[in-house]
Amino acid sequence: MDIQNVTVAGGGVLGSQIALQSAYKGFAVTLWLRSEGSIERTRPKLERLRGIYKQSLEALKTDPAAFCRGLTDSADVPADQIDELIARVDAAFDSLVLTTDYEQAFGDADLVIEAIAEVIDEKDAFYTAIADVLPERTILCTNSSTLLPSAMAGFTGRPEKFLALHFANNIWKNNTAEVMGTAQTSPESYQAVVEFARAIGMIPLELKKEQPGYLLNSMLVPFLNSAEALLANDVADVETIDKAWMLGTGAPLGPFRILDIVGLTTAYNIVAASPAAQEPGSTAARIAALLKQRIDEGKTGINAGEGFYKYN
Question: What is the pLDDT of residues 107-119, one digit of tens each?
Answer without folding.
Answer: 999 999 999 988 8
